[in-house]
């Protein structure tokens, strides 16, 4: 496959922040493909820079120069691993660990564009190109949608909000369509209950279109238990409840400080040991199936001790800020037994080749992979294809919002195309 054109321009993401879109055309084939890069609000300290330290305009100029080089020199791409040609070129100019000269979003968006162009050149969907790149012929398994129903933390600016960043739902169904439907119904039930129970709520939504309640953390967990029961009664389907605690935003350097702890006590401070006990208690009390970033992002030991205290392998203790889609940090987490699940965000590391290495290493050690959107999203649907193509079992991409639905609706289309129910 040779490119006929590859060009970059500036667009706005769902938070009205500047980001990059890339358009590519394949030589000898009609049509264009477009990719765009998301941006996170709650970022891990070990993430690469989003864009060049010289600014996003420099990143766009670099991509346009790169696109011209690829076209003029008739660079060929045939397989996923041919992305190394892009990375070798980038590394000539940026050898920093955090891609400060080029930017992780810059690298990610051009690699995603080339992958989609490769799939177009073979008249395939991207997921199919990725899945069958290794001559695998098994019928793909669709990921389950982990939906952000109620939220707070850094994802919303308002006087009263939950300390926990996301209250998540994971329906226990066989088909993607059914899970998608149940998450929508649960969202509606939660909205109706908030109208009844949260007199200060004015319909505000977080960056990810989750319901931005003013209720305290524990009241929201109780509310979701009601939602869970209502869905069980109406549809006969069980829902798993999870949290993205995003506790790095609560960590003061010595203690965890809560501002909306429960209905009787708003402010609460925990030592590390106390916080491990607290997280363990709310997991058991609420039968949580998933907890993301329950400890500060550099506290591998805290993750280890929490897992030992819970002593339940069916509860997913997930690293996001802890691991940052970084191979070395995942390796450390595996060796210390800090986690049994990992968030995968390609633009945290920039390189899709490195992202795939993280996915492969996690699978090798039975670490559940969860591919994830970012809070500042675009209409790009690449992660939906990566989820199916790399056979990642869970995708975290919200419940509502046009940028979230772009991924969910693409997964519905993929499910129909492979012949399963939807």
Description:
The structure is a single chain. The mean pLDDT is 95. Helix 9 (327-336) packs parallel to helix 11 (352-364) and helix 12 (382-389) runs parallel beside helix 13. The chain folds into two domains: 3-123, Enolase-like, N-terminal domain (Enolase-like, domain 1, 2-Layer Sandwich), CATH 3.30.390; 144-417, Alpha-Beta Barrel (TIM Barrel). It is an alpha/beta fold and 422 residues long. The protein has 13 helices and 13 strands. The strands form three sheets. It has an eight-stranded mixed beta barrel, surrounded by four helices. Strands 1-2-3 form a three-stranded antiparallel sheet. Strands 7-8 form a two-stranded antiparallel sheet. It starts with a strand and ends in a 5-residue tail after the last helix. It is globular and about 65 Å long.
